Amino acid sequence: MEKKIKESERLELKKSTSELKEAIVSMVAILNKNQKGEIYFGVKNNGEVAGQTIGERTIRDISKSISDYIEPKVFPKIKEVVLENKKCVCVEFSGNEQPYYAYGRAYIRVGDEDKKLSAKELENLILKKNKDKLRWDGEVCEEASFRDIDIKRLKWFLKESDKEHGSIGNSLEKLGLVKDGKLINAAVMLFGKKPQQFFPNAKLRCAVFATAETSLIVDRQEFEGNLFDLIKKAEEYVLKNIHIGMRLEGMRRVDVPEIDKDAFREAIINAFCHRNYYEYDSVNIAIFKDRLEIRSPGALYGGLTIRQIKKEKISKRRNEIIANMFHEVHFVEKWGRGISLILSKEPNANFKEVADIFITMFKRPSYVKEVTPQVTPQVELTLLENKIFGVIKSNSKISRSELSKKFGMSKDTVKEYLKRLREKGILRRVGKTSAGYWEILK
């Protein structure tokens, strides 16, 4: 006994050509989902073979209906087959011109059913089809010329990637960074003298905050340059503004950052490699008292979830050309092991998406170890208020200028904190000249 045919995502069964209209809808749904499939006329949807009357016009009518009612055009293979000694018609079809439409509507195959596509689903299908054409890094930068390329940076890259150096144009063409004689966006972002002339978002923004919130900024800086320069600036900024310990290896002292350097460097590289360059925003580094955040414009690409990148080690690249260039100089692995590397070095690292911004977070161990001194059970002080109070307690004649330098804050910010301490009844100023001093009240 022959095994019954079953409907699936690629196979549709129709009892006869009386269901030709429904069959055309199914064909479109299968094409939009799987790019190829089959339809049998003469088989019921439960797999029972009923047979199909096949006359002189049967196959011609099927072919004409497919031609008339499916757009873009599909050219199927239609043939007579025998199943369980009964005549049937098999239609084999394929196509890569998604989206396909039946009677002016688009459908998608879900299991063995045909579902109408919503406007949003249709948009996503079109974007998926054209994703390679829509990649930012592969688009031509019309305004840029070879004079805008930093020859020193290009020579460095060729040396690091063990490639021969020729003229600027020849070298970039061999790297696949020239299209129809013009530079593509990736070439300008990677090797441009001043990429920000063409792309205002070719920047890095960095800030240090006094607390675990964004209410008080201690330092803020903005950097411009090509991607390799920005990655270096980001790494230096983090190292400058987190705590550095040390260990001895024999007679040599080795600096040990509180956050593993390889882990946050990988997060920085990923931010520039996978960011959405169509967004005006920049890569941002935010250093709080309790954590480091590396923020990249653009949610995960290709429908990936945070769970998938953490547990299943899957990676999809938004900027294939930039990623390949980074791989040439060993900045990234082709197998997308960046998240695994980060978690192997910093197991408590976390990831989240907020308003289409991908954020990598590292806890700062130094924050956990800090103990807030108790002044009195009746008075609560913030961490920074306690630190200022502690300094004044040990040196009652310290000036506002000295406090400003010690904590890296403006004089106005110091003035505001001193005002808070006075309002809380912690201390008061005795004397208004430089000969004055602070009196501890509680």
Number of strands: 20
The general outline is elongated
CATH architecture identity of the largest domain: 2-Layer Sandwich
Radius of gyration: 33 Å
Sheet/helix structural class: alpha+beta
Strand content: 15-25%
Task: Return the CATH topology of the largest domain.
Answer: Heat Shock Protein 90
Task: Order the strands across the largest sheet as they lie in space.
Answer: 12-11-15-16-18-17
Helix-residue proportion? 25-40%
Instruction: Give the distance, in angstroms, between the N- and C-terminal Cα atoms.
Output: 95 Å
Total count of domains: 4
Q: Could you name the ranges where pLDDT drops below 50 across 5 or more consecutive residues?
A: none
Q: Note the main sheet.
A: 6 strands, mixed
Can you give the mean pLDDT?
A: 89
**For the record, what CATH class of the largest domain applies?**
Alpha Beta
- Total helical segments: 15
Report what the structure shows.
The chain starts with 10 loop residues before the first strand and ends with a strand. 29% of the residues are buried. The strands form six sheets. Strands 12-11-15-16-18-17 form a six-stranded mixed β-sheet, covered by helices on one side. Strands 1-2-5-4 form a four-stranded mixed β-sheet, covered by helices on one side. A four-stranded antiparallel β-sheet has the order 3-6-7-8. The protein has 442 residues and is of the alpha+beta class. The mean pLDDT is 89. The protein has four domains: 11-129, 2-Layer Sandwich (Methyltransferase, Cobalt-precorrin-4 Transmethylase, Domain 2), CATH 3.30.950; 136-197, no CATH class; 203-366, Heat Shock Protein 90; 372-440, Arc Repressor Mutant, subunit A (Orthogonal Bundle), CATH 1.10.10. It is built from 15 helices and 20 strands. It has helices at residues 20-34, 58-69, 119-129, 151-160, 168-174, 185-191, 227-241, 261-274, 306-312, 320-328, 338-345, 365-369, 383-394, 400-407, 411-423; strands at residues 11-14, 36-41, 70-71, 77-83, 86-94, 101-102, 105-110, 113-116, 178-179, 182-183, 203-209, 217-224, 244-249, 252-257, 283-287, 291-297, 350-354, 357-363, 427-430, 437-440.
